[in-house]
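Hi everyone,

Forwarding the result from last night's run.
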Amino acid sequence: MYGEIIAIGDELISGRVLNTTSTFVAYKLTLAGYSIRRITVIGDNVSDIKECLLASLKRSDFLIVTGGLGATEDDITNEAVASALGLELEVRQELVKKIEECGHRCDVAEGPYLEKMATVPKGAEILDIDSYAAGYLLRYEGKVLFFLPGVPSQLKSHVEKQVIPRLQKLLGPGQLVLYKIFKIFGLGETEINKKLEFIETNFSDVKIGYYPNFPEIHVAVTVTGSREKNNIEEIFESACSAIRQTLDIDIVAEDQDSLETVLGNLLLDKKSALAVAESCTGGLVGQRITSVSGSSGWFECGAVTYSNKAKVKILGVSPKIIEQHGAVSEQTAHEMVEGVMRLGSVPFGLSLTGIAGPTGGTPEKPVGTVFIGMGTPEKIFVERFLFPGDRQEVRLLASETALDWLRRYLKYGTDIPGYRPAKRLDQGH
C-alpha cells in the first residue's frame, strides 16, 4: 500500500518558502505504517498539476495534495483537479456559512473571494467543516485522494485528526512502525556509523539512518513489520538499548526532546538553576533555553555583554584582565561566568566569549576561537575551542558545546568520562 505527496505552490519551487508541510505529512504517515514512495513539488500551473495528478494515480493507492485551496488568483488546485478528473465544481453552502461565521479571522472578503473558498469538486467530502480552509476527500477509481490546505497549522490538524483516521478506516491499518531518534553531539557521522555497524548485523529487522542536523547528528532507528509479529517490540527495544549503551554520553537527547530540554530536567532534578553570560553568541544560548516551555523553573537570567564596557559594568569583569589578556581569553571567560552567577545568585553558570568572524581573528586567536566557562558549586572550569565554519556555524557550535558541557557535568559529575564536546573539531590546545 503506497502513497504519494504532491505539494503545490510557486513559493515552494522558487525557494521562497521551505516545504516543511510535506516533511510533516510524510513523517506522520510513516509512523502510522503507510509507505510514501514519492514527494513532488510543482508550481501554480493547471496543466502541470493535471499531469502530475494523473501520473500519480497510476502508481499509488492514495494521494495527499497540499496547497492552492485559498481565495487568491494563484490558488488553482480545485480547478486543476476538476479538469483532470472530469468533475464539475460546486459552491458548498455549508462552507459559505462557515466562512461568513469566522469573519475577519478568515481574512476573506465577501463576494467572489468567499465563493472561491467555498468551491470544491462535486462529490468532495469535506474533512473538517470547522476549519478555515476546505480540506476534502475524493474517491476516484478505487483510489483515495486528500486535498489539504498548505498553511502548516491547518494542514497539521487535518493530517492528525482527519487523514490518518480516514486512511485507517478506508484502507485498513498500516504496518506496525516503531521509530526513535537519537540526537548525538561530539562524534562525527562516520564514527557513529562505525560504532553502530553491529546493530544491523545482529538485528536483521532494524534499519539505521544517519542524518546531519547541524550541529548534531541524528540517528534514526526504525523497525517495520506485521502487527501480528509478536517479537517486533522486543527487537526494537533491544536495539535501542544497545545504541544507548554504545553511544552513552554522546546522546544529548531522544525523539522530541532537545539538548535544552534534557539540561533543564537535570537542573530541575537537582532543584537548581542556571545563569548565562554571552558575548560572541549574542543571546543564542539564552534563546535556545527560553524556547523550552517551563524554563523559568531553572533559568534565572542571561546577560548579553558584547562590548568590553558591558562586561565590566554588568558582570564586574576587571578592566585590567581585559587589558592584559583581551576580551577573548580564559581569564575574561572565568570572570564572566563568576559575575553572572553572582548576578543571578545561582550555583551554575555558563559564559562564552570568542571570535565568530569573518573578521577579527589574529594568528594567536584565529576566527573560531571561543572560550567557554562553566561555573559549578565546586569550581569554575574554562576551556578553549577552535570551531570551524562561518559566523553562524561558529555561534551554533559554541552554544551547543556550552549547553552540552553542563549536561555532561550534571549527569556524570566532575570526572566527565572522555569529555570531548566536539571531538571532530580542533579544540585549540
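The chain has three domains: 2-171, 176-254, 259-412.

Cheers,
N.
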